[in-house]
Amino acid sequence: MAPILQVKDLRKTYEGGFEALKGINLDIEEGEILALLGPNGAGKTTLISTLCGITQPTSGTATVAGFDIRTDYRRAREQIGLVPQEIHLEPFSYVGANLHFSRGLFGKPRNDALVDGLLKRFSLYDKRRNRVRELSGGMKRRVLIGKALAHEPKVLFLDEPTAGVDVALRKDMWDAVAELKKEGVTIILTTHYIEEAEAMADRVAVIRKGEILMVEQTSELMQRLGRKVLTIELREPLAGIPPALGGLDLELAPDGLSLSYSYDTRAERTGIAGLMARVQEAGIVLKDISTTESTLEEIFVDLVSEGAQ
């Protein structure tokens, strides 16, 4: 079965010669959640805008559910729901009417039950007769998501969906995203809350300066590039790392009360057994031992830093 979204050598060059997209290749499977991560100016929004028909690519191809975004624009766009980064809603329009109007724009017949269901899903039903100007920023963003889903798209783009949203609303939104995934909706999201991508995304794509640096399963990426840190808490402070522990990847805390040892989770031998034996031989008395592992944010920063070199 072909991927629901296929991008092949997609390029976007603006007047003046600036290359926003440099030959993007990307396949996204139906029903998956892909997190598109990258620093500001990396090309995330340009890529989304191009796939959604807001801007035209300079060259290359892309299809959504088999429909080409240029030669069969209308059918391709029907498959897509877009929640933009900026909030653009008519302030004097009514909440419920926004969803009905969006559905009508795509030629869909009126469906009160579906719209009411979306309003309830995003805690907007009680405000369906309110004007948009009466809503908070977080509630307006919920309206945007409801509008994007009103025509029952197969693919949903979320461009920074939780920017400026409080913690409670963020949780509600991610609960809704999880439900949409269960229903088979394919979701591509950009976010600065990388812990959300780590928790929600099946795969991660990292983009920098208009180029995809890598695309990988989130769990495999964490395992492949993640490092663990063993922290040894000491009963008595050390003035420095003893000579007996020289040559090891150790770091002494400023207060001298803990040693940190980094190791590769993929290595055949972690070196922990040898470290502990040498700690004991050095006469160092332990208080406690704990381990932590790399977060997706740390891995992302490392990848982008490597790409900058």
Automatic annotation (TrEMBL):
SMART domains: AAA. The keyword S-adenosyl-L-methionine does not apply. Residues 5-234 form the ABC transporter domain. Gene3D superfamilies: P-loop containing nucleotide triphosphate hydrolases. GO terms for molecular function: ATP binding; ATP hydrolysis activity. It comes from the Bacteria. Keywords: ATP-binding, Nucleotide-binding, Transport. PANTHER family: ABC TRANSPORTER ATP-BINDING PROTEIN. This is ATP-binding cassette domain-containing protein.
